[in-house]
Structure formats: C-alpha cells, structure tokens
Amino acid sequence: MSKHLRDGAVTEHFVSTAPFDPYTIEELTTEQERYHMASQRRMMWWRLKRHRLAVVAGAILLVLYLSILVSEILAPYNLHTRHTDFIYAPPQKIHLFHEGRFVGPFVYGFNYRLNIENLKREYTEDTKSVQRLRFFCHGDEYKFWGLMQANFHLVCSAPKGTLFLLGTDRLGRDTLSRIIYGARISLTVGLVGVAISFLLGITLGGLAGYYGGWVDNVVQRVIEIIRSFPALPLWMALSAALPVTWSPVAVFLGITVILGLIDWTGLARAVRSKLLALREEDFCTAAVLMGARPSRVIGRHLLPNFLSHLIASATLSIPAMILGETALSFLGLGLRPPITSWGVLLTEAQNINAVALYPWLMLPVIPVIVVVLAFNFLGDGLRDAADPYKVG
What we know:
Blueprint: E1 2-6, E2 9-13, H1 22-36, H2 40-50, H3 52-67, H4 71-74, E3 95-98, E4 101-115, E5 120-132, E6 134-144, E7 148-156, H5 175-211, H6 213-227, H7 231-240, H8 248-278, H9 282-289, H10 294-302, H11 307-330, H12 342-346, H13 352-357, H14 365-386
Antiparallel strand pairs: 1-2, 3-4, 4-5, 6-7
Helix pairs in contact: 2-14, 3-14, 5-6, 5-8, 5-11, 6-8, 7-8, 8-11, 9-10, 11-14
C-alpha cells in the first residue's frame, strides 16, 4: 500500500504484489481473438449451447429421427402381428424382483375374464407366470425398409410370453410397436412438407420482394386467393380428392404435397416484406453494381440477413405439418391403413366408449405432443442463436 499527497489530501491505492505472469495475458488475448475471429456458424453454435432447453429438445428430436432408421429393430413385434388371445390387453409393467429375489427385467403373464355387465375384457397379473425379457434377440420376421428379410430385435418377449408395454388394440396388435413404426411416416411428412413449402415460399417471396412491380402483384394475388380458404376444410377437400385406388406410397406423397402447397403463403409474405426493405441497402446496391446476378444477390446477401426468421418458420412449420397429417388421418381423410402413422393410430380413439374402457388407446398422442414441444423449444434456441443483432 502506498500513499500519495495531493492538495493536502491522502489518497490510498493498492498495488498487487503477485508476480507478473505473461502467459495468463496471452491466454486471455487468445480467447478474445478466438471469439472475435470466429465464423458466424461457430458463434451460432456457442449461443445455442447456452440455451439448455433447446439443446435437450434437439437431442430428443435427433434420437427420434435416428430411430426411424431402425424402426423394425426397435419394435418388439412386427407391425401387423396380431395376438387374438390378448385383444385390448392393458400395458404390462416391467419388474426386476420376484418374491424378494432379483430376477432381472421381466413381466407377469395375464389372467383373462370377460365382464358380462359392461362387456369389458379384464386382465389381471398372473404373479405365478414370470416372463423374462430377452435383449438383442430373434423374434417376429419383418422386411427391413421393405428390402430384406430379418428377425433381429432390440427386445423380445419370453418364449410363448407377451410384451405389451403400451397395451394392444382391438385386433390384438402391440401399440408400442405401431407407434414406433408410425414415427417413420409422421416425422417424414413434416420434413418433406416443409421442404416443398420453403422451396415455394422463398422462391416466390424472393422474386416478389426483389423485383416488385407486376411480379409482386401476381404473387400477392395468388397468396390472397389461397389464404381466403379456411385451412382445415381445404385440406379435407383436397385429401378427399385423392383416388382411393392409389397405392399407400402415392397417398403419402399426395398428402405431403398438399400440406406443402398450402403452407407456403405465410413464409412467402415474410420473405417478400424483408426483401423489399433489404434490397435498398448499400451492400445490395454494391453487389448489383459489381455484376452479381439476382439469384446470387438474393441467396448470398439478402436471405442470410433474416436467417433467424427462416429458422423459426421452419421449426414451427414442421410440427404444423405433423399436426395437419394427424388431424386428416384422424378424420379418415388423410393416410389410411395399411399405412401406419400417429394419426392413423388415433382413429382407434374415435369411439369414446372404447377410450373409457381402454384409455391406453390415447397413448399415440403423447409422441405428437413431445415432438411439437421439442420443435418449438429448439426453434426458440436457434432463432436466438442466429439473430445477428443479439450480443454475446
């Protein structure tokens, strides 16, 4: 501590007695340089990692989308396997201990009786029937992606046993297996539909915003005509127009195209309004004077300036597509058996009496809710990470 006299006043100031370490200064300088010289993509990743909820949502979606690659292996049973002795069987619980002794993962068998008063099938656990689960096992045969025959599963029931973790439906089919298979269709509809929607929205909105004039007028009138129809009745009308003789693959593609052709209008208007403002900026004028083509000006200079809005639109459009397919299939106007999606599975829950007696028929709605929430949380994180005006 030292003292300095100025105008008769005593001012105290402290001097650090710690030895000077030049390497610490270098590390600090290197860290600052790493941050200031980082690319926009790297800075987006750093910001996204700080949004914990978005990271968790992204991990959930990644697991779900990876699961559709091996749906046949993850599902305990084949999609169409029926257990006629276990119609409307309730979910079975997994146990580890039997009579105080560790057995490993197992389920108890069923005792069955028909309630004559309400015609309800009543199942109770048979604690004398211990059915141990098998892992990495051979079970129901299936065609992997419809190409090659196989019978390998991640988990199987005991020999001559059952494994209905989410119960069965009116035909005795395992609900969990059908939900796993249905994820392949429901999750793919969102991606393909958004790809079509973004292609139309960015192309037509970009042309309208960049050129203006009669191009803008034509695009705006088309958007107004499409938006004048209520969305759900329009979906229903177009879906009902699909020929019933079409193959399941053709129906799937038809529903996807319909969802994409209707959902592009909101994005096109957002792109158009943003480009109308950005095309007057100095950097856009400089690019034009240097001979850049309109496609390069739009794609390289204008669209990246509102990337955060595009990301938010994509992450909101995908769950909207999934909900649209689910609603159409639930009403019987979308995908139909033998195609299996979450909406098709929910048609089992149209009968309120069946739901009251067998509430597990509503379980396919849970993955729909999880996916919609996950996309919303991930969209919030990506939008904040991509915002060029966000500090830090």
